[in-house]
């Protein structure tokens, strides 16, 4: 069975039936706020509990790669409006300042839908916070509770306990409490460990650097990210806030620096900084020397391997709590945002609270593999350069496409669709398959079975006696035979007009078929089944022709079908591009009692799907049976023996695709009309019970 989904599914209909979810988010960092916005936009009530007062985010810059920028734009946030700078140049120097390479990153970025940006963390955080809590925008504003440290979580019933002892319960608790997550311990004993590296972070004004002539070369380009590499340490410098600030990240071995308690935001020392980069390009050292020591921060970079589970019954981890990131590829914040948008997408408006545990499982399926792969690539790209090896820049660039060329919103949406359609026992697929299962007479766009009992039908038929020896030539294999050895057999033209069909938006269409009666099919095991063989059918609408041919295996063709009737007469004219080829007429119709259908009214036909590039061979061919439909509600039934059938096979020019069929039907003599009938009522068989005989 295919695993995929249709292009749309109706969350609005679901929304009307269910209440919004109450979601509690722990932590108002990049991951927590993105999650809150995404869930708010899905219509849920979100409360964020943040332990700090959020007086200020850590003042540093952050890469906003295309995969993160796309999410921000999806959530209505334009980071460039808050001063984020486009990453345009990637320049690399050796430790001593020799020019190694420059990559035109703007050129590289042209293939990405969203720009690669360099944002100020405070600006980005403020944008996220404002968007979350704004009274404008989709969904109810997020309630942000600062100075609200969460000290415990009941991961099965969704209750959190704050430091002041108060409890709050929700349908879902999202722990976005960062690298030193307390909540993570609910799922694993694993904790992050020192990676062996520290990072100094600070910013200087670009104008100050430009004022020093020997620095102009390295700082003047707009949107330029500059690297100085040594085997075990590096300096990364890039601009942000409308190109007015230069941000520095200086990663180097951890030589037991004292005073660091493994948290963010340790105080750095300028002298140590300069000493750490002794022997580096004098321009780099000059830039490092410009730091305002009070703003110099030093981080111990922590790392943690994959954990097995990111979720429990009503609880999940996002961001660094689930997958702490080293900074080497600028993807930690981006992956936290991907987690957030994934949750918002997998829990759309209308999600019932009882569905939360299953959606969390799906969330892990969407996110874990990718986040951990990016985490591992990041880890590898931060490794020291072995003697004789070149630096890892080439390696880093190789993974840029994987990192940046991803849209988690689209990915999660598709995973949700796959999941929702897998929930439906069976759904029909037919071409084009790129858009998921096909809505049709038997299933709606969500894969639900169609209700057809209220649809209307008028069926007219002429049953007549004709030559069995001619008819039998229409049977596709020797497994089909006539029950009787008589040379006179019965056949019918049956025409139906349908109306009030849900799958056609309440509309209808006409069709007619040629049926042979008294047929038996003998299976390979000797068992026989009895019914009527449908040799050909014409319809005046493309949709049922396609669904009937592909899903059921009916031999359907197109014709214009004109129907006229009075209280006691009926006529039908079938034509192709103006060439009438069959006319049926019933006159002097009188009301009488309808006969109930019997099991022998079931219909046989033969499905044949030609093989591409292999004329004369089939990819599929097998006998089909449509069992007798359950009783319809017949409102009126008329009968007559005054019927007329006239055919006109024209020539190949007038009927270029039908001449061979109509000329064969024209050969059939009408020995005697058995009866003509008109029945009208409600209840239309969707043919969902059609099956392959063997
Ligand atoms: C030096 C360095 C440079 C980096 N550069 C980049 C970069 O350029 N690009 C990038 O994408 N990523 C970068 N990262 C990684 C990125 O910063 C993180 O991956 C990202 O911030 C993770 O977001 P988060 O929301 O999971 O956690 P955080 O941003 O750490 O937020 C966690 C929040 O939870 C709160 N909290 C914690 N415990 C509790 C509690 N018990 N109750 C309530 N609140 C609590 C905290 O106060 C905090 O506000 C860098 C990381 C480092 C160390």
From TrEMBL:
The keyword Transferase does not apply. One of its GO terms (molecular function) is monooxygenase activity. It comes from the Eukaryota. The keyword Cell membrane does not apply. The chain crosses the membrane at residues 20-39. Residues 22-374 form the FAD-binding domain. Keywords: FAD, Flavoprotein, Membrane, Monooxygenase, Oxidoreductase, Transmembrane, Transmembrane helix. InterPro entries: Acetoacetate_decarboxylase, ADC_dom_sf, FAD-bd, FAD-dep_Monooxygenase_BioMet, FAD/NAD-bd_sf. Belongs to the paxM FAD-dependent monooxygenase family. This is FAD-binding domain-containing protein. It comes from Cladophialophora psammophila CBS 110553.
